[in-house]
Amino acid sequence: ISKARDLSARHGYAVEVSPFIPSRVACATSQYYGIAGCGTLLVLDEMETGVVLVRSWEWSDGLFDISWSETNEHVMVTGAGDGSLQLWDTANHDAPLRVAKEHTQEVYSVDWSQTRGENLIVSGSWDQTAKVWDPALNRSLTTLRGHEGVIYSTIWSPHIPGCFASASGDGTLRVWDVKSAACRLAIPAHKAEILSCDWCKYDQNIVATGSVDCSVCVWDLRNVRQPVSQLPGHTYAIRRVKFSPFSKTLLASCSYDFSVRFWDYSGNQPLDTVEHHSEFVCGLDFNLHIPNQVTHTLFITVLSITITVKILVLADQM
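Structure tokens predicted for Peroxin-7:
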């Protein structure tokens, strides 16, 4: 994905497929591994000739996560290293539509609610708090505290309104109720930092976690004494886990070991390992429109390549 200006110092942190346009993805990137410099938000389309740039915007700090609106095909939200959230519109060439800054440290996770009857954004920060926002990013509606480490991941339940899960450096997976602003469940899921979590799209009680201990664990929230499934195989920290939108027991994970792995947790077996990348893999998403198509993104860039986006289609039997 080449551009007239040099974006060689950008590193990809998150990728998400549009819920409206099957060929469109958004990528959140940072300069110098997010340690210093600015960030770039990219919107890309997959064409027959390859992946092309639709639009890009700059932000003064690194961008670490991205989530599309579930009600407007043009709008998305990002989280940044300066503690702010930004609302963007692909139909608007200018700066963000709105910026909200309440977190005191990096915003490492943002997610847009998926259940009917509500339209909310949740953010998770290294300041150990999660915040819930209305879509206009006015003042936050509530702030939730309880984690004793940085929050790396916040994901809305696709089933239960006002409910989200969070994963933290304190080794716990927590389930929150927004209405009561309370933690309903705290699971000591790993003995190491948890970098990612995701809800099963077919079962409101199933949540997966990915950890620095190199394992993916699948949990049944009705009985959390031990995981339903434990999936070892990665050799470095797992950066992101995602459940398939088409198969109840299929999930994918990406890692600092340069690989993407696919699992059927019902059999505790890996289905496939993809090693197309030559650097850390930080972003991962399933296409909601095309069964078994997965997009993932490289942590590091090469020369004029802004970000390496791999689009895979799994074998039919998966």
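Residues 1-6, 298-307 have pLDDT under 50 and may be disordered.
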